[in-house]
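Q: Got a minute? One more chain.
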Amino acid sequence: MRAYAWRQASDTLADIRLFVLYHDPEHTYAVPHSLGLQKGLLGVVYAYADGLRAVMAAHGIRVHAAEIALSATYMCVPLKGCIDFLGADGYIYDLKTTREEATQYGFGRELQRNPDFRLQAAWYMHLWKLNFGESPKGFRIIAVEKEAPYEGAVFELDQELIADGGIKMLEAITTFQKCTEFDSWPTYPAEIIKVEPWKKPGEATPLSFS
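A: Always. Here it is, folded:
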């Protein structure tokens, strides 16, 4: 991937290069997970062309600028990010594929449960304000299902979720500052991790007679 990125490089320097690989749903049953390389700051997004186009057309979404690499310094910490595109409506849009249904009770629940999404939203919106002096209108995700019929939907994170993401962003920056100051970085535990059967909240633990 690094070799391909080098061959595609233009005279314009970019901190992060993001490539979108579109698949034909008629010939691809499921697309791989999107991925990124820290070394070289490269990323590949796998998406279904028909699903993405259909969602954008249904909601009247037009691209104002795409693959926007941003960098800034905040609290003496360098920040970077790459926005998939800014819509003509002033929203930041992020493209994702999902194995969940692209509904309120599928991918929508994942947005509620997974703190990484709200952290990403707060991070990108803050980076935008640091670079351009004003906040974008909001943060939206276009999610396209990985399996037929490749339906998609647009999800918007509300201000409460983004505010929680802002708290997590500050926590991450503060942790990075401390790790850098003391040259001590968190790692996985050295002991063996014992895995037990998953129990529902309030479920009784069986007695052991051993």
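A: Strands lie at 17-23, 35-37, 42-48, 63-74, 77-87, 91-98, 138-145, 152-156.
Q: Perfect, thanks.
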